[in-house]
Amino acid sequence: MKYPVAKPLFHGNERKYLLDAFDSSWISSTGPYIDRTEEAFAHYCGTQYALTCSNGTTALHLALLGIGIEPGDEVIVPTFTFVSTANAVKYCGATPVFVDCRKDTWNIDESLIEDSITRKTKAIIIVHVYGHPCEMEPIWSVAKKHGIKIVEDAAEAHGAVLYTVQSKEQIANSREQRAEGEDQRPQSRVPGPMRYAHMVGSLGDVATFSLYGNKIITCGEGGLITTNDKAIYENMKQLRGQGLDPQKRYWFPRIGYNYRMTNIQAAITLAQLEDIDWHLEQRRRIATSYNNALSPCEHIEIPAELDNVRHAYWMYSILISSKCMLSRDDVMKKLFEKGIETRPFFYPMHQLPPYSDQQKNGNYPVADKISAVGINLPTNSALTANDVRIISEAIIEIVDA
Ligand SMILES: *Cc1c(COP(=O)(O)O)cnc(C)c1O
């Protein structure tokens, strides 16, 4: 493929740190790069704690176990997501309850969340789809009102930012009495009406990230978790390492997992993290070029970026309009013939066999629609302005034919 959707790009210290880890013989899951990566990522997200782990799926499993999800619990999950989000709920013996998504950002439709809450609801997982942060203000309020935890699946949104007029505590407490001493998370103040900047990863009780090869930063296979809650952090850390008692060697008071990252993977991650602003700039540059080229085309809907966010553009994605003579799959096929790789949008969870019983709980018209007409375009940091121009022209030629 001349233009792949995603590809890892190593243009900083990746090779140097990788060889340093290798030469040191600390190739397993202890070593200085693990600590350095955790420290650097917590700092980047503005959270108290960060943990490395083996991938974005185990990160989700640890996050859910960390906040105490148990068999019989219900967890609200957007139906429009990658399958890991729902599977991690199942790993805990809990039940995912699906919610439809918004027409513009394709994120969970926050106005539908409250109707899905039952006595069994313990948490909600929000997914910042393709890198666009969720609209948190109503989610903070509803979570606070019902005493449910928020897990961010930020696998696709490293470095994305949400801006708010009020602080997080003001928003969560606006409908009720302020609970004393709660929720003292750091938020950076910015001038102007959008006074508070919140990094993705600091928006809920715990957040998870993936470092798979096609993500914004990568180490091949890996995951990161962030939280401000010490108890959740310690819980997850113990579960990540077989459940080992931190004070007593070879004593396992509970059943844990081996979900650790290696020092080799952490070495690559640290170098990618040093360069994350560069990667985000490239993605924004590519998205802006696509927007300029594709917005006049009436057979395409370009992705939204709400005024109060910084989109991370993991994937630049478009919808093929019903006015187009070709189907989405035909458009993809014709692009493929020109050396342009694309991906179809995720199937919504409620359509997949393990979750099809969820159909009875409601319908999901927005997710059904976008999943049938959405395409992810090449969005890797290496694409030049000329590449984006060639790809955009090819798309317009195909959809306008
Ligand atoms: C990629 C992804 C994951 C899973 O990450 P892995 O590292 O591949 O396990 C989870 N959730 C979402 C939304 C993703 O896009």
Task: Outline the structure in words.
The protein has 401 residues and is of the alpha/beta class. The chain has helices at residues 14-24, 32-45, 56-66, 83-91, 136-146, 168-173, 230-240, 263-274, 276-294, 328-337, 365-373, 385-399, and strands spanning 49-53, 74-78, 95-99, 121-127, 149-153, 161-164, 188-189, 196-199, 206-210, 223-227, 300-301, 309-310, 316-320, 343-344, 374-377. The strands form 3 sheets. Strands 1-10-9-5-4-2-3 form a 7-stranded mixed beta sheet, sandwiched between helices. A 4-stranded antiparallel beta sheet has the order 7-8-6-12, with no helix packed on it. It has a 4-stranded antiparallel beta sheet with strand order 11-13-15-14. Helix 5 links the parallel strand 4 and strand 5 (149-153). The longest helix has 19 residues, at 276-294. The site of pyridoxal-5'-phosphate has 14 residues, from helix 3 and helix 4.
Layout of SSEs?
Layout: H1 14-24, H2 32-45, E1 49-53, H3 56-66, E2 74-78, H4 83-91, E3 95-99, E4 121-127, H5 136-146, E5 149-153, E6 161-164, H6 168-173, E7 188-189, E8 196-199, E9 206-210, E10 223-227, H7 230-240, H8 263-274, H9 276-294, E11 300-301, E12 309-310, E13 316-320, H10 328-337, E14 343-344, H11 365-373, E15 374-377, H12 385-399
Parallel strand pairs: 2-3, 2-4, 4-5, 5-9
Antiparallel strand pairs: 1-10, 6-8, 6-12, 7-8, 9-10, 11-13, 13-15, 14-15
Helix pairs in contact: 1-8, 2-8, 3-4, 3-7, 9-12
